[in-house]
């Protein structure tokens, strides 16, 4: 920590399998889970997310033993939803959510990161549905997200945090604010991913200052503005954009993380700030040095 960077004593820094190029439960191009756990601990992180369900051991006793002996704790699980399709998808959604929520709770975590479904395939670019929701779909999205928040809290004691994401319907400032304005603050909070929000044209500091009480969780990430301009101009889907390097190692990209962290600290609540360095696929030896440098950088910011 430098003298110019006050301690961010309410920010709990962690990382995630995503920072090791892990997007799927099982993929030969991904590092084994044991290596991820070893390296995330060696890089100086104390907190981790579960990543895609099935990548880390799903037996709570096994996972607890493996994390404990490396000095790691779990901050959140992640689920994928398509709640704008309304009550018809509830049963399928809950089948996906319940196992992950149970493991998340068993690991002592309190948050469930909720990622909306993509409107175009993140690998092929095939358009799966309209990129704009109808008024009825917005109503369904709000109502079903509130329902998810209520059910997850009542059954598992967890808080949901909705993650704005490129190539989903919850992406831009307009759409993020629309969802927040349409949902109960007691049931629905936000996982502000600084990289995805910048990717979609948003200002993270402004969002924190405007909707501070709704910010329940942070993902720390940066985008390369030059590559972003190219992928937007070429209408490149998110997956190939990541392969082009659109998400870059801090502090090389935007947004600057120091003011984001300062704004988050000013909220005067405990917040997780989980590093997510999107890079799928990537060589197995690439993630660790990046993670180590990023941890050093965040310490220089006071975190």
TrEMBL record:
Keywords: Isomerase. Pfam families: AP_endonuc_2. Residues 37-299 form the Xylose isomerase-like TIM barrel domain. InterPro entries: IolE/XylAMocC-like (IPR050312), Xyl_isomerase-like_sf (IPR036237), Xyl_isomerase-like_TIM-brl (IPR013022). Coiled coil: none annotated. One of its GO terms (molecular function) is isomerase activity. The keyword Signal does not apply. Signal peptide: none annotated. This is Sugar phosphate isomerase/epimerase. It comes from Streptomyces chengmaiensis. The lineage of its organism: Bacteria, Bacillati, Actinomycetota, Actinomycetes, Kitasatosporales.
